[in-house]
């Protein structure tokens, strides 16, 4: 659960930085989004390659989980 929360926080921070919006709707992240996210992790967050890959893989699961949790509210 800790990795999920960390990935979610980092993804939100990336979206805020990239799109200047607190949230955007993503049903399934495309290659461009994931590549830009990995690049952002390596540059802005100064993550090494392995950390960026793990976070990138975790971010593929976030949109579906966040959209489901919003429906429950």
Percent in helix: over 70%
Count of DSSP E strands? 0
Q: Encode the helix/strand succession as letters.
A: HHHH
Number of helices: 4
Shape: globular
Number of domains: 1
> What composes the largest sheet?
none
What is the rounded distance between the termini?
Answer: 20 Å
Structural class: mainly alpha
| Radius of gyration, in angstroms, nearest whole number | 12 Å
Model regions low in confidence, pLDDT < 50 over at least 5 residues: 64-73
Task: Report mean pLDDT, rounded to a whole number.
Answer: 75
Q: Give the strand content.
A: under 5%
Molecular structure report:
The structure is a single chain. The protein has 73 residues and is mainly α. It has one domain (2-19, 28-72). The chain contains 4 helices and no strands. It has helices at 2-19, 31-43, 49-59, 62-72. It is globular, with a radius of gyration of 12 Å. It starts with a helix and ends with a helix. The relative contact order is 0.18.
């Amino acid at each position: 659960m800790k990795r999920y929360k960390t990935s979610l926080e980092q993804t939100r921070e990336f979206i805020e930085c990239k799109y200047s919006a607190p949230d955007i709707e993503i049903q399934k992240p495309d290659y461009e989004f994931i590549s830009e996210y990995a690049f952002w992790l390596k540059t802005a967050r100064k993550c090494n390659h392995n950390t960026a890959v793990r976070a990138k893989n975790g971010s593929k699961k976030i949109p579906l989980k966040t959209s489901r949790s919003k429906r429950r509210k």
